[in-house]
Protein backbone atom coordinates (compact mmCIF):
# COMPACT_ATOMS: atom_id res chain seq x y z
CA UNK A 1 0.00 0.00 0.00
CA UNK A 2 2.81 2.43 0.89
CA UNK A 3 4.50 1.75 -2.42
CA UNK A 4 1.25 2.47 -4.28
CA UNK A 5 0.79 5.77 -2.39
CA UNK A 6 4.34 6.88 -3.16
CA UNK A 7 3.83 6.08 -6.83
CA UNK A 8 0.56 8.05 -6.85
CA UNK A 9 2.25 11.08 -5.27
CA UNK A 10 5.03 11.05 -7.87
CA UNK A 11 2.46 11.12 -10.67
CA UNK A 12 0.64 14.07 -9.08
CA UNK A 13 3.88 16.01 -8.60
CA UNK A 14 4.84 15.66 -12.27
CA UNK A 15 1.50 16.90 -13.58
CA UNK A 16 3.00 18.11 -16.83
CA UNK A 17 6.06 15.92 -17.40
CA UNK A 18 8.62 16.83 -20.03
CA UNK A 19 7.59 14.97 -23.20
CA UNK A 20 9.93 13.36 -25.63
CA UNK A 21 12.43 16.00 -26.74
CA UNK A 22 11.20 18.26 -29.54
CA UNK A 23 12.81 17.90 -32.90
CA UNK A 24 14.74 21.06 -33.63
CA UNK A 25 16.21 22.72 -36.68
CA UNK A 26 19.92 23.21 -37.10
CA UNK A 27 21.21 26.76 -37.51
CA UNK A 28 21.22 26.58 -41.32
CA UNK A 29 17.63 25.33 -41.47
CA UNK A 30 16.50 27.83 -38.83
CA UNK A 31 18.04 30.76 -40.72
CA UNK A 32 16.48 29.39 -43.92
CA UNK A 33 13.04 29.41 -42.29
CA UNK A 34 13.56 32.97 -41.01
CA UNK A 35 14.73 33.98 -44.49
CA UNK A 36 11.65 32.34 -45.96
CA UNK A 37 9.40 34.36 -43.64
CA UNK A 38 11.11 37.59 -44.68
CA UNK A 39 10.82 36.66 -48.37
CA UNK A 40 7.09 36.00 -47.90
CA UNK A 41 6.59 39.45 -46.39
CA UNK A 42 8.64 41.19 -49.11
CA UNK A 43 7.02 39.37 -52.03
CA UNK A 44 3.49 39.94 -50.72
CA UNK A 45 4.22 43.60 -49.93
CA UNK A 46 5.60 44.24 -53.41
CA UNK A 47 2.71 42.33 -54.96
CA UNK A 48 0.20 44.39 -52.98
CA UNK A 49 1.85 47.65 -54.04
CA UNK A 50 1.76 46.50 -57.67
CA UNK A 51 -1.92 45.56 -57.44
CA UNK A 52 -2.76 48.95 -55.96
CA UNK A 53 -1.70 50.56 -59.24
CA UNK A 54 -4.24 48.59 -61.28
CA UNK A 55 -6.90 47.91 -58.61
CA UNK A 56 -6.87 50.66 -55.97
CA UNK A 57 -9.25 48.95 -53.53
CA UNK A 58 -7.10 49.30 -50.42
CA UNK A 59 -9.39 47.44 -48.05
CA UNK A 60 -9.67 44.32 -50.22
CA UNK A 61 -5.92 44.30 -50.90
CA UNK A 62 -5.14 44.54 -47.18
CA UNK A 63 -7.31 41.49 -46.49
CA UNK A 64 -5.79 39.67 -49.43
CA UNK A 65 -2.28 40.39 -48.12
CA UNK A 66 -3.18 39.31 -44.57
CA UNK A 67 -4.76 36.00 -45.60
CA UNK A 68 -2.05 35.20 -48.14
CA UNK A 69 0.59 35.81 -45.46
CA UNK A 70 -1.01 33.24 -43.17
CA UNK A 71 -1.51 30.72 -45.97
CA UNK A 72 2.11 31.17 -47.06
CA UNK A 73 3.18 30.37 -43.49
CA UNK A 74 1.01 27.25 -43.63
CA UNK A 75 2.74 26.13 -46.83
CA UNK A 76 6.15 26.76 -45.23
CA UNK A 77 5.17 24.69 -42.18
CA UNK A 78 3.76 21.86 -44.33
CA UNK A 79 6.87 21.86 -46.51
CA UNK A 80 9.06 21.53 -43.44
CA UNK A 81 6.82 18.79 -42.04
CA UNK A 82 7.06 16.75 -45.25
CA UNK A 83 10.77 17.28 -45.88
CA UNK A 84 11.80 16.56 -42.26
CA UNK A 85 9.19 13.82 -41.71
CA UNK A 86 7.94 15.54 -38.57
CA UNK A 87 4.72 14.80 -36.74
CA UNK A 88 2.50 17.58 -35.45
CA UNK A 89 3.63 16.72 -31.92
CA UNK A 90 7.17 17.65 -32.99
CA UNK A 91 5.94 21.22 -33.46
CA UNK A 92 4.36 21.21 -30.00
CA UNK A 93 0.80 20.09 -30.72
CA UNK A 94 0.27 17.88 -27.67
CA UNK A 95 -3.02 17.49 -25.84
CA UNK A 96 -3.43 19.14 -22.43
CA UNK A 97 -6.48 19.56 -20.14
CA UNK A 98 -7.41 23.08 -21.29
CA UNK A 99 -10.28 23.39 -18.83
CA UNK A 100 -7.91 22.73 -15.95
CA UNK A 101 -5.28 25.25 -17.04
CA UNK A 102 -7.73 27.91 -18.25
CA UNK A 103 -7.41 29.98 -15.02
CA UNK A 104 -3.67 30.31 -15.61
CA UNK A 105 -4.28 31.36 -19.21
CA UNK A 106 -6.69 34.07 -18.05
CA UNK A 107 -4.27 35.20 -15.32
CA UNK A 108 -1.42 35.43 -17.83
CA UNK A 109 -3.65 37.40 -20.18
CA UNK A 110 -4.61 39.81 -17.39
CA UNK A 111 -0.94 40.42 -16.55
CA UNK A 112 -0.16 41.27 -20.18
CA UNK A 113 -3.05 43.73 -20.24
CA UNK A 114 -1.89 45.47 -17.06
CA UNK A 115 1.62 45.86 -18.50
CA UNK A 116 0.34 47.05 -21.85
CA UNK A 117 -2.11 49.53 -20.33
CA UNK A 118 0.81 50.97 -18.36
CA UNK A 119 2.76 51.25 -21.62
CA UNK A 120 -0.12 53.04 -23.38
CA UNK A 121 -0.53 55.47 -20.47
CA UNK A 122 3.20 56.22 -20.59
CA UNK A 123 3.06 56.95 -24.32
CA UNK A 124 -0.05 59.07 -23.88
CA UNK A 125 1.72 61.21 -21.30
CA UNK A 126 4.55 61.62 -23.78
CA UNK A 127 2.07 63.01 -26.29
CA UNK A 128 1.98 59.90 -28.49
CA UNK A 129 -1.12 58.14 -29.80
CA UNK A 130 -1.78 55.14 -32.09
CA UNK A 131 -1.34 55.96 -35.79
CA UNK A 132 -4.66 56.19 -37.62
CA UNK A 133 -3.10 55.20 -40.96
CA UNK A 134 -1.66 51.93 -39.62
CA UNK A 135 -2.68 48.76 -41.50
CA UNK A 136 -3.87 47.01 -38.33
CA UNK A 137 -5.91 50.06 -37.31
CA UNK A 138 -7.56 50.15 -40.73
CA UNK A 139 -8.34 46.44 -40.73
CA UNK A 140 -9.44 45.90 -37.13
CA UNK A 141 -11.21 49.24 -36.92
CA UNK A 142 -13.97 48.19 -39.31
CA UNK A 143 -17.27 47.45 -37.61
CA UNK A 144 -19.41 46.29 -40.55
CA UNK A 145 -20.75 42.76 -40.26
CA UNK A 146 -18.68 41.15 -43.02
CA UNK A 147 -15.49 42.99 -42.02
CA UNK A 148 -15.91 42.01 -38.37
CA UNK A 149 -16.38 38.33 -39.30
CA UNK A 150 -13.27 38.44 -41.50
CA UNK A 151 -11.30 40.12 -38.71
CA UNK A 152 -12.37 37.55 -36.14
CA UNK A 153 -11.54 34.70 -38.53
CA UNK A 154 -8.15 36.17 -39.38
CA UNK A 155 -7.07 37.48 -35.97
CA UNK A 156 -8.96 35.12 -33.69
CA UNK A 157 -8.57 31.78 -35.48
CA UNK A 158 -6.10 31.68 -38.34
CA UNK A 159 -3.29 33.84 -36.95
CA UNK A 160 -3.12 32.12 -33.52
CA UNK A 161 -3.00 28.63 -35.05
CA UNK A 162 -0.39 29.45 -37.69
CA UNK A 163 1.77 31.91 -35.74
CA UNK A 164 2.00 29.73 -32.64
CA UNK A 165 3.15 26.79 -34.74
CA UNK A 166 5.73 28.99 -36.45
CA UNK A 167 7.02 31.31 -33.71
CA UNK A 168 6.70 29.23 -30.55
CA UNK A 169 6.68 25.62 -31.72
CA UNK A 170 9.29 25.99 -34.43
CA UNK A 171 11.43 29.10 -33.87
CA UNK A 172 11.45 29.23 -30.05
CA UNK A 173 11.62 25.44 -29.82
CA UNK A 174 14.76 25.42 -31.97
CA UNK A 175 16.41 28.51 -30.46
CA UNK A 176 16.01 27.10 -26.95
CA UNK A 177 18.31 24.21 -27.89
CA UNK A 178 21.15 26.52 -28.90
CA UNK A 179 20.97 29.58 -26.65
CA UNK A 180 18.94 28.63 -23.58
CA UNK A 181 15.37 29.34 -22.51
CA UNK A 182 15.56 33.03 -21.59
CA UNK A 183 17.64 34.17 -24.55
CA UNK A 184 15.44 32.14 -26.89
CA UNK A 185 12.34 33.68 -25.32
CA UNK A 186 13.61 37.24 -25.89
CA UNK A 187 14.80 36.58 -29.45
CA UNK A 188 11.65 34.75 -30.53
CA UNK A 189 9.39 37.38 -28.94
CA UNK A 190 11.35 40.15 -30.69
CA UNK A 191 11.07 38.35 -34.04
CA UNK A 192 7.34 37.75 -33.50
CA UNK A 193 6.71 41.40 -32.66
CA UNK A 194 9.10 42.87 -35.20
CA UNK A 195 7.58 40.98 -38.12
CA UNK A 196 4.27 42.76 -37.50
CA UNK A 197 6.04 45.93 -38.73
CA UNK A 198 4.32 48.25 -36.26
CA UNK A 199 6.59 50.42 -34.12
CA UNK A 200 3.82 51.60 -31.79
CA UNK A 201 2.73 48.05 -31.00
CA UNK A 202 6.20 46.50 -30.71
CA UNK A 203 6.30 46.46 -26.89
CA UNK A 204 2.76 45.08 -26.37
CA UNK A 205 3.40 42.28 -28.88
CA UNK A 206 6.80 41.61 -27.34
CA UNK A 207 5.13 41.24 -23.92
CA UNK A 208 2.54 38.93 -25.48
CA UNK A 209 5.35 36.92 -27.09
CA UNK A 210 7.05 36.42 -23.71
CA UNK A 211 3.73 35.36 -22.14
CA UNK A 212 3.17 32.85 -24.94
CA UNK A 213 6.66 31.42 -24.47
CA UNK A 214 5.92 31.07 -20.74
CA UNK A 215 2.79 29.01 -21.45
CA UNK A 216 4.53 26.86 -24.05
CA UNK A 217 7.47 26.19 -21.75
CA UNK A 218 5.21 25.42 -18.78
CA UNK A 219 2.74 23.07 -20.47
CA UNK A 220 4.88 21.76 -23.37
CA UNK A 221 1.94 22.30 -25.69
CA UNK A 222 0.73 24.91 -28.17
CA UNK A 223 -2.93 24.61 -27.20
CA UNK A 224 -2.65 27.04 -24.24
CA UNK A 225 -0.76 29.44 -26.51
CA UNK A 226 -3.49 29.38 -29.13
CA UNK A 227 -6.12 29.97 -26.43
CA UNK A 228 -4.27 33.04 -25.07
CA UNK A 229 -3.33 34.37 -28.53
CA UNK A 230 -6.91 34.00 -29.74
CA UNK A 231 -8.36 35.60 -26.61
CA UNK A 232 -6.00 38.56 -26.95
CA UNK A 233 -6.78 39.08 -30.65
CA UNK A 234 -10.54 38.68 -30.32
CA UNK A 235 -10.74 41.21 -27.48
CA UNK A 236 -8.48 43.65 -29.38
CA UNK A 237 -10.61 43.23 -32.52
CA UNK A 238 -13.88 43.87 -30.69
CA UNK A 239 -12.46 46.91 -28.86
CA UNK A 240 -11.07 48.37 -32.10
CA UNK A 241 -14.38 47.83 -33.89
CA UNK A 242 -16.34 49.49 -31.07
CA UNK A 243 -14.18 52.59 -30.69
CA UNK A 244 -13.57 53.27 -34.38
CA UNK A 245 -16.82 52.05 -35.83
UniProtKB/TrEMBL annotation:
GO molecular function terms listed in the Swiss-Prot or TrEMBL record: endopeptidase activity
Top-rank taxon, per record: Bacteria
GO biological process terms, semicolon-separated: CAAX-box protein maturation; proteolysis
Keyword tags: Hydrolase, Membrane, Protease, Transmembrane, Transmembrane helix
Domain CAAX prenyl protease 2/Lysostaphin resistance protein A-like: 147-235
InterPro entries for this protein: Rce1/LyrA-like_dom
Chain ranges passing through the membrane: 30-51, 63-83, 104-124, 144-162
PANTHER family named in the record: CAAX AMINO TERMINAL PROTEASE, CAAX AMINO TERMINAL PROTEASE FAMILY PROTEIN
Protein name: Putative metal-dependent membrane protease
Species per Swiss-Prot/TrEMBL record: Desulfosporosinus acidiphilus (strain DSM 22704 / JCM 16185 / SJ4)
Amino acid sequence: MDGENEHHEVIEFHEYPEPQRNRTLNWVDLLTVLGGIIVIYIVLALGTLWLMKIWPNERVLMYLNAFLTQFSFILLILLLKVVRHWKWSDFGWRSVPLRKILPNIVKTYAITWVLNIGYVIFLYKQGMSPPTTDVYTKLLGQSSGVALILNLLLAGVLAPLVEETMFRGLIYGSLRTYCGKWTAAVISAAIFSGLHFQAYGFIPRFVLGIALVYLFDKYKSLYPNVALHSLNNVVATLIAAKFTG
